Amino acid sequence: MTRLSILIAALVLPIGEASAQADFYAGKQISLLIGTTAGGGYDAYGRLVARHIGRHIPGHPAVVAKNMPGAGGLASANYLYNRAPKDGTEILIVQNGLPFERLFHSLSPEGKNALFDATKFGWVGSATQTVFVTVTWHASGIRTLRDASAKETILGASTTSSDSYVLAMLSNHLLGTRFKVVHGYAGATEVSLAVENGEVQGEAGKDWTTLTSTKPQWIRDKLINILVQMGTRAHPDLKGVPMAIELAKSPQDREIMEVVFAKFGMARPFFTAPGVPPERLALLRRAFDATMSDPTVIAEATKLGMEISPVRGDAVEALVAKMMATPENLAARARDVLKPR
Asked: What does the H/E/C string look like for 44-113?
């Protein structure tokens, strides 16, 4: 399957082929797998898409959301790549860093257990682009990056390959913070609960759209301090919050950040198994695009505090291909910065 063949299929689908795809999905069920525990940002976006995308797929299949957590998302990605049916009846949303395990964590247990080639998945699209933030609880006494550089700060994370862990490591090595990360939580919901209960003082690598959709009271009631934002472009809602990339101490450090932060251009990625017929992948991409522009979906997302800034499937595919083609010397430097200490 080539990118060109998928693009052609997306632009021109003969009437007979459209009818065939409708016949294929009619009476079927699509499983929309969510590679995290319930209650977090990925879960919210996965369920939003599951509620509406069936209306935009010819044949109007039932779409059922199913959580499939495990190993920071590796279990679901490995399943989709190696065991899921290759017919477009299973779609997965997973942490945006997960597809790049073998690039950034090739020497860690997580990277070695990534039994997939990210460039071969059928990329359907991303619900949004975002920045990630590092936050501390209001009672922690850590209000700024300067505070976090002067005093050890305990943060929470699920695994050593999660954004909450690796972005804390990046911050320690490139910005001079003194974050100590306690990992082993089941998912984002459990980390947030640990922050609220005082088990940890905050979290690095918190998706801004996760905060606005699942913890708006943290922002509204000023229960957190936002220390830094990580991304290639500042978020308009975060005026005054420093950008990590602007604090880089050298061109080489900035280059590492640009590589690591590129994945935030696909903050909520949806994809299907490799080998799905190009015309069916094209159909799923069109259905996803229609869902993301559906006034009902936008209204629901707005009510829930969820940001919608979609990225087309072909653009996500191109981003994945570009990242996986990162020169080895630069990837090695990034791995060194991100590795567990």
From this structure: HHHHHHHHHHHHHCCCCCEEEEEECCCHHHHHHHHHHHHCCCCCCCEEEECCCCHHHHHHHCCCCHHHHC
